Amino acid sequence: SFIMKSKTMDKSNETTVKLTVSAIMVALSTVLSFVKFSELPYGGSVTLFSFVPILFVGYAYGAKWGLGAGLVHGILQMIFGISGATADAGFKWWQVVLCALLDYLVAFSVLGLSGVFKKSIKNPQASFALGALFACVLKYISHFFSGYILFSGWAEWFFTEGGGMSYGSKILSAYSGNVLSAVYSVIYNATFSIPETVLSLVMVVVLISIKPIRNAAGIK
């Protein structure tokens, strides 16, 4: 009976630690998301490693905790960002709901899947980096569908005025309709997703190389 109680207490303490750390990481991600190197007109920005705390939760504690932390962070980002973006775009109610789902709830939740390679790849730097890349690619895909479905009406503006691209006119002359919408979403979302992903990958490799952090992630 004493052993069973001890195990229950240990599990309860472990859950409390994970909950506390996850809450701190969500708060840190939220603060870092306000430090922006660049920002696009219809959503998307390059921030100061704001993905990394959520990526760490997913790697250290697994998908359940990572998805939960990512979802809470996504809700906070939605509260801070969706009203301005959707108001400027003139969205209807169902478009607002779809934008909330794809650009916030799904997009940030999937960052919590960063631990997918933790057990199969023994090198912590490689497993965390590949897991972070996998999670960031999933986030990019979610943004892509949002851009393709909801924001494609701004493709011509983006390739002429908004993007400041010398090759914008060539894209407009080569593509139209759904293909232009897809090309627009690929490029628009890549402009902030690629730099953010690169910054995140560099930071997760640095972090997991630090022994106390590696130990906290369950890597001895």
Summarize the structure.
Helix content is 75%, strand content 3%. With 220 residues, the protein is mainly alpha-helical.
Strand line-up of the largest beta sheet: 1-2
Q: What's the alpha carbon Rg, rounded to whole Å?
A: 20 Å
Q: Largest sheet at a glance?
A: 2 strands, antiparallel
Poorly predicted ranges: none
The mean pLDDT is 89
Structural class: mainly alpha
Helix content: over 70%
Please explain how this structure is put together:
This protein is mainly α. It is built from nine helices and two strands; from the N terminus they run αββαααααααα. The protein has helices spanning 2-32, 52-61, 63-89, 93-109, 124-150, 155-162, 168-174, 177-208, 211-216, and strands spanning 36-39, 45-47. Helix 6 runs antiparallel to helix 7. It is elongated and about 60 Å long. The relative contact order is 0.12.
